[in-house]
Amino acid sequence: MIPPLSIGFMGLFGRSPALRTFDADLRALDLHPKLVPEAVKLAALRILMAKTDGATLLDNDSKAAAELLAYCMVGAEPFATANGIHLTQSVEKRIDLALDDDTSSDARLILLALHANVIQPSVIEHYRLETDSG
């Protein structure tokens, strides 16, 4: 269990446990946390917290969100090279399911990556992702 998201005042209190866990999850996937904008990490954690009505996040939720964001940010081949084909296929299955259920947290995370412009063009092309411009 990860304590709820909290932000220290001007960095005086350090990073929240949720952000530290999320950074560690990203690093474990071979994506340096500094490559992910802080706003994206905070928004991702807020999406996860919405699933639990602001209650404590589960470690598995943080790990799953990091997997999805890492895949979106680096693309299929680099993700598979760093993390193996089984995890890559698992994430790709989650993306397929998210495209069918646009209310899921996975769909919201994909949309976050798309709107934050941190998603690989190959992922956009492969899944034919687009945003409504109206």
Strand content: under 5%
- State the major sheet: none
Terminal residue distance: 40 Å
Q: What's the overall average pLDDT, rounded?
A: 89
Which consecutive residue ranges, at least 5 long each, have pLDDT under 50? none
Q: What share of the residues lie within helices?
A: 55-70%
Q: What letter string, H or E per element, gives the SSE order?
A: HHHHHHH
Shape: globular
Tally of DSSP β-strands: 0
| Spatial extent as radius of gyration | 14 Å
Secondary-structure-based class equals mainly alpha
Structure description:
This protein has seven helices and no strands. The chain has one domain. Helix 2 packs antiparallel against helix 6 and helix 4 crosses helix 5. The mean pLDDT is 89. By secondary structure, it is mainly α.
Write the layout of secondary structure elements.
Blueprint: H1 17-28, H2 38-51, H3 59-74, H4 76-83, H5 85-100, H6 105-115, H7 121-127
Helix pairs in contact: 1-3, 2-6, 3-4, 3-6, 4-5, 5-6
Short description:
The chain is mainly α and 134 residues long. The protein has 7 helices and no strands.
List the main descriptive attributes of the protein structure presented here:
134 residues, mainly alpha
